[in-house]
Design goal:
The complex is a heterodimer of chains A (259) and B (231). Chain A folds into two domains: 56 residues, no CATH class; 183 residues, Multidrug efflux transporter AcrB transmembrane fold (Up-down Bundle). Chain A is built from nine helices and no strands. Chain B is of the alpha/beta class. Chain B is built from eight helices and ten strands. In chain B, α3 runs parallel beside α5. The longest helix of chain B is centred in the C-terminal third of the chain and has 16 residues. The mean pLDDT of chain B is 93.
């Protein structure tokens, strides 16, 4: 099916970006450059993605390329996580492990059990949604764990001094950090349909799919994202915690994350 | 008699700053040993080496003859209890705090340890945030005592409490020592050192400048410098 938005329509939609730029100028937010850069970057990335998808979706193309593309997305996402929270030690390998486990568990379930067809048109976008949503939860979990342990150092050392292991001493604070990292996803899952219509469902309805069919797809995607976010947040929190203690149960010197 | 703690050539730096410089000292296995020194002299760090919350870059720390590096840190910390400068109460009631230290403690044990630190048993159900500084510090002491440690490390435990609570904690410490729990007590307060110390170590800028009896003539110079700084 051909999309409804013409190149002229797309250009017209830039008016909305112009409104954001005008607001930024009017309020002296100094976000104009970032707004324009984000707009251009998103467009270029989406165009590239469109070409890649078109190439991957050719009927003769092996599915191995789609999975290779997913693997590349996982590595790039882990790298992005590291860039966003550089203060957290060893974050790249932790994020990579977390995203691989989450991808294995969630994509394995939805494709292994046949919830979605094991085809390039499903693999790449679904993996993209799963990884994209997990990325923010990963950054949030890593930062929260580091900040929580830095802020509660005196309590944690008091627990260690009582003879608790690092795992026992950190447990209450790790739990709090995981809850914080998962809350936005849980809240948006609760609000879906009432407050907003998610992207996939909106896209399907705009593309002419029956709304009830779109709902079924969207619900499955929401559960995929929720599962992936939960797995990544937990794996990252535990991995970061491990890096913040020495093997002989001492808390390493920590600095709070910035921003 | 084997020393309680032996520091041999201990050196430690943190974030590029040297905290302890080749400290060699012995802590006797009885009574109350005060580690005195001005702020930043390395007193707390020396104390934290005793239960491995810090480890030296160089040198050896021995606990009753055994290198602490060879002792399981959790076992060491259960045997060498510590009370910190700032009372660090965990969320929940006094009872919850005590149960963190010993989840299997019976009600009689909880009441016993609370009375041992001269708190009323009714306080067991009080939320930690509602306690005064002195009460909170005694809860921290009770929390340490419930694990039945053989030694106590006290890191300036009276620095955040009022004078009455300070004297009460000091009396309590003396009684615990008489009960056979040797203690290391860090302070920068010379008057407090004089009230408490059976033995004295004085640190100055990370170096040991005195080790011996508090009434020793050689202690006077080092103590005078700390006293002058504390004014």
């Amino acid at each position: 099916m051909k999309g409804d938005v013409s190149p002229l329509g797309l250009a017209t939609s830039l008016l909305l970006v112009a409104i954001a730029v005008i607001v930024s100028l009017g309020q002296q937010l100094r976000l104009e450059k970032r707004l324009v850069w984000a707009t251009v970057r998103a467009f270029v990335q989406l165009i590239v993605m469109g070409f890649v998808l078109a190439w991957l979706l050719e009927p003769s193309r092996s599915l191995a390329y789609s999975w290779l593309w997913v693997a590349g997305m996982v590595v790039f996402a882990a790298w992005t996580v590291r860039l966003r929270a550089p203060e957290v030690p060893g974050l790249f390998s932790i994020a990579l492990t977390a995203l691989l486990i989450a991808a294995g568990a969630t994509l394995g379930t939805i494709f292994g059990l046949g919830i979605f067809p094991n085809e390039a048109r499903a693999i790449v976008p679904l993996a993209g949604m799963m990884i994209g949503n997990s990325l923010s939860a990963t950054v949030l979990a890593a930062r929260r764990v580091t900040d929580e342990l830095a802020d509660k150092r005196h309590e944690i050392e008091a627990r260690l001094a009582l003879g608790q292991s690092s795992k026992q001493a950190a447990r209450p604070y790790i739990r709090a950090a995981i809850r914080t990292a998962l809350t936005p996803q849980i809240e948006s899952t609760k609000a879906v349909g009432l407050v907003f219509l998610p992207g996939a469902m909106t896209g399907l309805i705009l593309g002419g799919v029956d709304p009830l069919d779109a709902v079924l797809v969207q619900a499955a995607i929401m559960y995929l994202i929720l599962g992936a976010v939960a797995i990544t947040a937990i794996v990252v929190a535990l991995g970061v915690m491990r890096n913040l203690f020495t093997p002989d149960h001492r808390l390493r010197p920590l600095t709070r994350t910035v921003g | 008699m084997t020393a309680l703690f032996d520091f041999h050539g201990v050196r430690l730096s943190k974030q590029g700053t040297t905290i302890l410089r080749d400290v060699t000292a012995t802590v006797p296995d009885d009574g109350l040993t005060v580690i005195a020194g001005a702020s930043g002299a390395g007193k707390s760090t020396l104390l934290r080496l005793c239960n491995r919350l810090d480890v030296p870059d160089r040198g050896v720390v021995r606990f009753r003859g055994a290198d602490v590096a060879g002792i399981d840190p959790m076992e060491l910390r259960r045997n060498v209890g510590m009370v910190f400068q700032r009372p660090a109460l965990f969320a929940g009631t006094v009872r919850d705090n005590l149960l963190v230290a010993d989840p299997a403690a019976a009600e009689t044990a909880l009441e016993g340890v609370v009375e041992r630190v001269e708190l009323r048993v009714e306080l067991l159900d009080r939320i930690g945030d509602d306690l005064s500084g002195g009460e909170a510090q005694r809860v921290c002491l009770a929390r340490t005592l419930i694990t039945d440690p053989g030694v106590l490390l006290m890191d300036e435990p009276t620095s955040s409490v009022d004078p009455a609570a300070q004297r009460r904690l000091e009396d309590l410490a003396r009684r615990l020592c008489l009960d056979g729990v040797p203690m290391l007590w860090v302070t920068h307060d010379v008057a407090q050192m004089r009230r408490l110390a059976d033995h004295l170590l004085v640190l100055e800028a990370g170096r040991l400048v005195f080790s011996g009896q508090p009434d020793d003539r050689d202690a006077a110079g080092a103590l005078a410098r700390i006293g002058a700084e504390a004014q």
